Amino acid sequence: MKSVIxxxxxxxxxxxxxxxxxxxxxxxxxxxxxPFNGWQGWxxxxxxxxxxxxxxxxxxxxFSVNKYVFAVFFPLFSLLGxxxxxxxxxxxxxxxxxxxxxxxxxxxxxxLDVVSIPLVVFVIVSLLISIFAVKYRFEKLKxxxxxxxxxxxxxxxxVILTANGRLTASLMQRFPFNVYYNFSEYxxxxxxxxxxxxxxxxxxxxxxxDSLKVVIVIGEALRADHLSxxxxxxxxxxxxxxxxxxxxxxxxxxxxxxxxxxxxxxxTRADSIYPERAFQEKSFISLFRKCGYYASWISNQDPAExxxxxxxxxxxxxxxxPEKSVYNYNEWLDEDLIPLAKEIxxxxxxxxxxxxxxxxxxxxxxxxxxxxxxxFTPVTSSRILSQCSKEELINSYDNTVVYTDFFLDSLIQxxxxxxxxxxYLSDHGETLGENGAWLHAGDSEASHHPACIVWxxxxxxxxxxxxxxxxxxxxxxxxxxxFLFHSALNAANIPSKVMDKKLSIFNFPLQ
Length: 511
Description:
Helix content is 47%, strand content 9%. The chain has helices at 2-27, 38-64, 67-91, 97-105, 108-113, 117-140, 146-162, 165-171, 177-193, 259-267, 284-290, 308-311, 337-345, 390-415, 458-463, 465-474, 483-491; strands at residues 212-219, 246-248, 252-253, 294-299, 316-319, 351-357, 420-426, 431-432, 438-439, 452-456, 479-480. β8 and β9 form a beta hairpin. The protein is elongated, with a radius of gyration of 26 Å.
């Protein structure tokens, strides 16, 4: 009996030592840039780090029961941990499905460009330590009743990873569980690419007879009533308010309050009667391409399984920041999309469709505006909502609105001398303290009212005065967010039989 207890404690201490090594060098970099305030914030951050280490303990425990399994597992674990933690610490980069895709498709020279001497040294040290741990496991530890250890560690690990949805989501965003999670998400995305969708208008045959640039900007979590264009008491649109041919639509309704469900309904002709079209049919992008448009998707967000197939309807797909996720707490700006749009524009195709997917007003708000746009103060200094006052949260949010105003104005500058039209539509709104709720993905009324802004160039206005007049007449009308499918086609004069002009903001309303 004493030998069994001694064997258990020896294994326990060994796994604990391995976990502490991993916790300090592989997991801690994911928490170093988390903004928080005071002892309470420090404790909450430490608690989350401890939970990640706790789950990692049982993962290492499971693989250490058999020394041969451990000899394979721990060096690989250390190799991945050292590489991912180095880039998380040095470059604020995290593993994402986009980064996996880029890594698998880069040539060798591009891959070697991100290899540095400090990285090589850290990897070598980590591998040497892992080899020492394997040697120690072989020579010093004898595990009694290994089946009990296997079952116990497996059960406890499963309980930790499935006990709470929010806890699971947090664990899966950091090493070591982010390796499994992101490769799994990448596999899902790749599988989705080969799922055939239905052409909504197989009879459509047309050519683009006019040089036109159609720019669709998908916003993120920007609510309509925080635009000064719509009467908000703060000047959140100082640039757009000075431009002509700007039309803001304050009465748009989004049925869904999260990106993954909202985008399929925005991009397809799905509606309340036929919601299944969002997951069966192709988007308006495919119809643009059938009519000779060169389509580009330029994204500042990671793709999701629900809408990645629409992204790949485009001729060109560019990801601005494939190394970032919502668990990054450092600068992540939409202005970085502009140079990519410029590069596509240089191709000078007569007809272009640009779809720009922005990070917009996503939490953590301070990440998504640069210092010159810190207009309203004080702002938040912690990612922990309970540590932020309502004033700080709304100030930070409104600063993202001012920044979006700057971004859209910069985008307009890129196209203002063209025959061009821009439609900005946020995927959903944001809850800002109403009934004690914050952020989005809930059922707060504020989350159902996204911002929508349309801009027309002088050349577009001259060629299509009736469309511009219709915008003026429709600006205060109620539309559901699926208006985008029909409005984009109408703006480009694409003669599709599936376009419903009654749902287009470019069409005169029925009297």
